[in-house]
Design goal:
This protein has helices spanning 12-28, 41-51, 76-83; strands spanning 3-7, 32-36, 60-63, 69-71. It has a single domain (3-83), classed as Glutaredoxin (3-Layer(aba) Sandwich), CATH 3.40.30.10. By secondary structure, the chain is α+β, with helices and mostly antiparallel strands.
Length: 86
Amino acid sequence: MALLEFFGETCPHCVEMKPLIAKLEEELGVKVEQNEVWNNDENAQKQKEYDKGLCGGVPFFINTDSGKHICGSTDYDSLKAWAEGK
């Protein structure tokens, strides 16, 4: 399973998600692969490949197993459900 986050380095919504991602990784024992897209063209292209018109912005989260995605910031329970494929 791959849990991917695409974010912008100084995006306030992305910064808001950092502690929730850390809590998720610790609690569930998972790793969220973080890809900065504002300053990294390769990651920006990777986001386009996964986004396919779903979100178009950051933060963008996708669970490659379930296909579940989140556009923008969210609460911890929604983030956890996403990681679990619910």
